Amino acid sequence: MPTPHIRAERGEIAPRVIMPGDPRRAERIATDYLEDAELVTDVRGVLGFTGTWEGRPVTAMASGMGGPSITIYATELAREYGVEQIVRVGTAGGMSTDVVVRDVIIATGAHTDSGMTASRIPGVHFSHLADFGLARAAIEAAERLEGDAAVHAGAVFTSDHFYLERPELSAALTAHGTLAVEMEAAALYAVGAAERIRTLAVVTVSDHLVTGESMTAEERETQFDAAARIALSL
């Protein structure tokens, strides 16, 4: 049965979901990577396509921006469509000088100051962790990947704010090994823990808080081949 936010029928969404934030990026993944991809949902302009990658069914579906949005879609996919794993493929802002624009980060964990998890388990500082098996497989896939993109594994910071500048917080997080900031990983990992599904975020550094380097809007949509290939291999 369709949900309030997904119009697909049961069976039209694959057990494996690749989840960018941008609907156009979901469409590009379907067009450029999947075979026999068909549109299965477009509620509120959030596009989802199901096809195959190397003979295995996979759905490429957008999540929108931010923790609340990805929580809605990931929860409905897990509960109503039997999805077993969701891999976020998105962008992030570099925080550490160990990463540069166009690098790929396999987010093994996600710090956050969002209230999304605090409301789940009041009084507990919940640890937002990727599925270990997926993270390990992603690191192994990255080692086999051909191309110029450098791939890192480590923690990211999930923020509810896109424009709020907090240099002291950024410095403290970087001093503790945080590689980049984005807006969805912690919420996705919390859904994974609650719904017992495998979750991972593989993000491309689209801009850098320290160096000021940044991709264009078009590059943000198109320059994610390495991350997409890693995610699709899982």
From TrEMBL:
Its EC number is 2.4.2.3. It holds the Pfam family PNP_UDP_1. It catalyses: uridine + phosphate = alpha-D-ribose 1-phosphate + uracil. Keywords: Glycosyltransferase, Transferase. It comes from the Bacteria. One of its GO terms (molecular function) is uridine phosphorylase activity. GO terms for cellular component: cytosol. Residues 16-228 form the Nucleoside phosphorylase domain. GO terms for biological process: purine nucleoside catabolic process. PANTHER family: FI09636P-RELATED, URIDINE PHOSPHORYLASE. This is Uridine phosphorylase.
